[in-house]
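Just wondering, can you check both lines?
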Amino acid sequence: MQNILSGIRVLDCSIAMAGPFAAQRMGDMGADVVKVEPVTGEWQRHAPAGGAVGNEVCVSFLSLNRNKRSLAIDLKAPEGKALLLELVKDADVFLQNYRPGVAERLGVDYATLSAINPKLIYVSMSGYGEDGPYRFHPGQDLLLQGMSGAMMSAGSADAPPSAAGQYLVDAITAYSAFEGALAALFHRERTGEGQLVQVNMLDAITTIQMQELSVFTVGGVPQARSAEPHAHSYIRSPYGVFATSDGYITLAMANYSKLAELFADPFFEGLEDQRDGWAMRDEIFARCRENLLKRTSAEWLEAMRERDIWSGPVYGYADLVEDAQIKHNGTFVEYDHRTEGRVKVPGFPIRFSKTPSKIERGAPLVGEHSREVLAEAGLDQGAIDRLIEAGVVKQHG
C-alpha cells in the first residue's frame, strides 16, 4: 500500500530538533528521507537530552530521525558537494536550517539548487529570519520562548516567568516547516513549479499566539499578571493548577453557582462569571485553592465531572504513558532498533484511513545508507569505494 508521500524524495540537511522533526513527519507519511550528515555524524547524535546516550544512537537523535536513511558526506570537500548536487537533480524537497549565509558559502542555497532542479521545494529554516538585525542571533528554544511574550501570560505577578515544559518553539517551527513543504508540493502538483519556503522560529512562536496578541493589539487589553498564579492572563478565574490533599489538578473557567454547590461555600453564590471572574480574579483563585486542599484529586475530579466542571489531572510522564485514553489511541508505538533494541516512542498525530503512517526503519547509524543512496544516484561501487577511502563519504560498518 502506498503512503501519502510515497515517491517523494526529501534531502534533510538539518540539525538539532526543528528541521529533523519536520523531515521525520514527512518520512512517517512515506517520503524517502535521506539524512545528509557530516562523516562525524549530525550534532544531535552527540548532544543527548537528559544524558540518555543509548547504545550507539542517543535517544535525542533516535526520537527525531526514524524513517530516514543516512548518507554521511563531507560537504566542504568538492567531491562531497558534487555528490549532493547530483542528488538534488531528482529530489522533491531540500530542507536545511543552517545559520544565515552558510548555505550560500557551501553552494547549496536556493538560487544554486533551483537552477539544477526548478521543481525543487527548498525549505529554509532560521531562528529569526534570513535577514534583519537578529539574523545572526542564536535561535535556541528557550531564548525564543522568552522573547515571544508568552512567559508573561501565565503565573503570578511576583513570580519569575516560567518556560514551557517542552521544546515548544522547536516543535511549532517543525510543524510550520512541515505544513509549508506540503503546501508547496500541492502547488507544484497544480503548476509544475518549485519554490522557496522560509520559516523562522520567532514568527512561528509569535503567530500561534494569534488570539492573545489580537486581544492586546485590537482589543487594547493589557497583558497583566495578577497576584495569584493564573495559567493565562487573558482568562477569567479560576484558571490554573491547584493542589489537592494528595496531588494537583487543573481547573478551568468554572461556573460559580456550580462551585458554590461543589464546595458548599456561600462565597461563590451570586457571583457573575464574566464580571466577577475578572474583577475578583485573585479572590476567587485563592478561595478555590483553600477549598481544594480538603479532598483528594480523584475525589474532586469525580465530583467535578458529575457537575460538568472543566477539570483534569496533572500528570507526570509515568502517568501519561499508562493513561487509558493514550493506550486506546495507540499514541505510543514500539519497534525494534538495530542497536537500541526494543524502543517505545510517541507515534503519529495524524491518522489517515487509507494511507496510515508507519515506521519503516529506526533512526539510522552514521552513513548507514551511504552506499545504497549513492548507488541509486548512479555511482558505481568502485567510485563509492574511492570516496569512502578518501574520507569524503562514510559508510557505517
Observations:
- The first strand starts at residue 9 and ends at 12.
- The mean pLDDT is 96.
- DSSP finds 17 helices and twelve strands in the chain.
- Residues 168-191 form the longest helix (24 residues).
